[in-house]
Amino acid sequence: MAAAEGDETEPDVVVEGLDMPGTGYTLGFTTTWSLESLGENVAIAQEGAVAWLDGECCYPSVRTVDPLPSTGVYYFEIAWNEWRWYGQAVGLVGEEATVFVGSGSEGEDDLGNGPAWFVKYPRSVGRVPARGARTESVGQLDAPKMDRQSDNATIGLLVDMDERTLRFYHDPRAEDPQPDAIVIHDLPDVVYPAITLAYSRNNRCRLVFRDPPGMEALPTKSATKIS
Predict the structure, then answer these.
(1) d(CA 188, CA 185)
(2) How far is it, in rounded angstroms, from Cα 162 to Cα 42?
(3) Which pLDDT belongs to residue 192?
(4) Which residue in 46, 206, 191 sits closest to 111, CA to CA?
(5) 41 touches 61 (CB < 8 A)
(6) Alpha helices of 5-113 — where are they, by DSSP H?
(7) Across-strand partners of 151?
């Protein structure tokens, strides 16, 4: 069973720099992790902002309560206390996805049974094009340092619902942050932010919506199109 919000055993998760809500660019939109669409032993804490693994379970997933609005540009970040476990993933799922499955078998550590679009530790970008389909590899983020185990890692996702595209920031806290060249196209009308937690007890992450870094410098012509 998933732990209820405000459980006394919840860890005190404080991620520096991620305590401010998004302002202008996300049009004030925000959401929280769902208490219903989640896997075994996923606990939700800190008013829905933090998801963590409260027990032994392989690769359970959770999505947000609300989908992203069908129009507009939205940016959110996932801050992990540990980015080091194969099976950790962050991205988007479609409304048909059963994101709370997760036994560790093939495909079930990739944000459920699809459709889904994600980056998985250490830096593999993939997608599950339809419900029940096999995971397809899209490529690798150009971020060699993500191959190393790290604490307090942050991954940013920029979702343009007007253009139906997804881009990743592998180091949004850098001095001059830039999104990766990979662009995932043709997102559906309804998508939810989602994560897969690894099998390490207390593996946890924080979700926050905010303004995207370096928006004025976004490249638009040299990106790799993934349709």
Answers:
(1) 9
(2) 32
(3) 96
(4) 191
(5) no
(6) none
(7) 82
Q: What is the DSSP letter of 147?
A: G
Using CA atoms, how far apart are residues 116 and 40, in angstroms rounded to an integer? 20
| One-letter amino acid for residue 216 of the chain | E
Structure tokens belonging to residue 31: 């959401």
Structure tokens of 18?
Answer: 């991620």
CA 87 to chain centre: 12
Instruction: Give 139-173 as a DSSP string.
Output: EE-S-GGGGS-EEEEEEEEEEETTTTEEEEES-TT
Query: Rounded to the nearest 5°, which phi and psi values hold at 152?
Result: 55, 45
State the pTM of this model: 0.81
Half-sphere exposure of residue 43, counting CA atoms within 13 Å on the CB side? 22
Distance CA 188, CA 166 (A): 11
**Cβ-proximal residues to 149 (8 Å cutoff; 6+ apart), any chain:** 82, 83, 84
Give the per-residue pLDDT at 62: 92
DSSP class of 47: T
The per-residue b/e assignment along 105-116, b for 16 or more CB within 10 angstroms, e otherwise, is eebbbbbbbbbb
Mean pLDDT by 10 residues, the chain (227 residues): 45 38 56 90 89 81 93 90 85 84 51 85 88 86 75 89 93 81 94 88 85 56 31
CA–CA gap between residue 147 and residue 182 (Å, rounded): 17
Written as six digits, the tokens of 45 are 């804490």
